[in-house]
């Protein structure tokens, strides 16, 4: 990789001189290439990808800024992002991470509840972003049911149809969208600031043992959606949930909405990977529909 255009752009735009000779690859997911790179007496975390992914880095920068402004949980400080030639990049503070502890899970749970106290007048966000590598449309809606139907489930179902995942999945999805107002009939959440992609791989602890969250897909939505995703792939213990409840108890019926909110992420995985995720999405929709009979 030719580092010269990237380090030159970073120097010119952010007044930071990096030593590309000291760059080394580090783990950071399957979408981007990730590096730790030195400069100005410190180390930095650099993500790179092809130039057509520049919008994804811009969206991530906006999401990190929103989480940082809300304040209760640590996020990597954003230095800047850019696009030079065939490469896009995002430069962040380097935070040495370690595995979590029960104490850190409790701090994370309480901090997430406080994050969710950051609210907006409407549901959505002021720009579109991404859930993984998939586009995530936002905009602003007065109704949570309308936002979730159109910008979350409906959008993923349209992607599934375009990818040829039709038939029973589309039939069940269309039926579910029709009954969605009934599923939300007695639920009126306020628009809370959400991480948006809070699974076990998107948080860890810093060297002081404090929780750090990263790789967001932020928007203002029902706080239960963040909590639901923590249950989708595991990685969160009882101390996390107890601390959240102590800080801000969930309303009645929250457990019954876990499947509904996680359907969005399962549909996204079906669109990305197909196979078992498609079957899982169909099974979730059938459970939700049967509960309305």
Name the average pLDDT.
95
User: What is the domain total for the residues?
Assistant: 2
- Widest sheet: strand order? 1-2-3-5-4
Q: Could you tell me the number of beta strands?
A: 13
Q: Which structural class do you get from the secondary structure elements?
A: alpha+beta
Total of DSSP H or I helical runs spanning 4+ residues = 9
Looking at the structure, what is the overall shape? Answer: globular
Order of helices and strands: HEEEHEEHEEEEHHEEEEHHHH
Question: For the record, what is the CATH homologous superfamily label of the largest domain?
Answer: Aminoglycoside phosphotransferase (APH), C-terminal lobe
Helical content (DSSP H or I, runs of 4+): 40-55%
CATH level-two architecture of the largest domain: Alpha-Beta Complex
Radius of gyration: 20 Å
In whole angstroms, how far apart are the ends? 58 Å
Low-confidence spans: none
Explain the overall architecture.
- The protein is α+β, with helices and mostly antiparallel strands.
- It has two domains: about 5-95, 2-Layer Sandwich (Phosphorylase Kinase, domain 1); about 100-290, Alpha-Beta Complex (Aminoglycoside 3'-phosphotransferase, Chain: A, domain 2), CATH 3.90.1200.
- Helices cover about 45% and strands about 20% of the residues.
- The protein is built from nine helices and 13 strands.
- The strands form five sheets. The protein has a five-stranded antiparallel sheet with strand order 1-2-3-5-4, with helices on both faces.
- Strand 2 (about 35-40) and strand 3 form a beta hairpin.
- Helix 4 (about 145-160) runs parallel beside helix 8 and helix 8 packs antiparallel against helix 9 (about 275-290).
